[in-house]
Design brief:
Elements: H1 2-24, H2 37-44, E1 50-51, E2 59-60, H3 61-96, H4 99-113, H5 117-135, H6 152-177, H7 181-188, H8 193-230, H9 236-239, H10 248-277, H11 279-283
Antiparallel strand pairs: 1-2
Amino acid sequence: MKGFFIEKCMEFCICIIVIAVISYVPFLFLEGNTLSFTTFLQKLFIPGDAVNPMTMRQISFWDVIWEPYMYSGTILLVSTFLTVVMATCLSFGYVLSSLKIKKAIERCLVLIESIPDLLLIFMLQIFFVWVFKQTGLNLVNIYAFGSKQAYFLPIVTMSIVPALHFFRIMVLFLLDEQNKPYVEFARAKGLSRKYILFVHLFRNVIYHLFNHLQSTFLFMISSLLLVEAAFNINGYMSFILKPFVLNPVTVARWIFLLFIPFYVVFTIAHFQVKRTTGGLANEK
């Protein structure tokens, strides 16, 4: 356990250094940049430092970023949770279903995956507009406008494609695990397919799934800007496109706000997964 956290702390420190460097270096090539690297590091960790918007008013960076950060962070976290739940339910249903149902599921997956993200978003928006015109019920907000915030559709659209990819990965691991000798032994003892799947198979593949979940999460972050633009969300990703944000200090802080919380969350989750699957014991 001690070696695990030492490794993660070293990895965290290296990432912080790399983020600081890549946030500063591109601005060296801009005309009029007089900010030295030492001054950059000093300003980076001063909480009261401010940014100057186009209105020339001094506004604290944290006051400007906090609301978009919480908005986009909520969408991202709920989408990740929904992705895992959808993929897990689909994979369990797929493994336990008959061959005919498996083929039907595969056809549906191919159809959904062939739809571009923007077209999928547009179709969902049109569908709820049609529902509103037919019934008069405004079930969800299809756009964020003023004080109205859109949550349901952005979360759903961000979850569908990653859930399908994660489902395919989960099925591959589960089917591969089914060929192990201990599964045959468990069946010989009279254990049901559901019990073997839920208790043994899933526990043995969860470590590998967690590694793929991290890459799936990065994919979801990359699609967050598209979702914010499609739903008119003044969110965290679109914040970086504002003109007054483009300076080394705000860019570095912007990346830190994305990297640090989720790195901590994934480190804790990684520790729990390794402890559950016996990985920490094997490392000793």
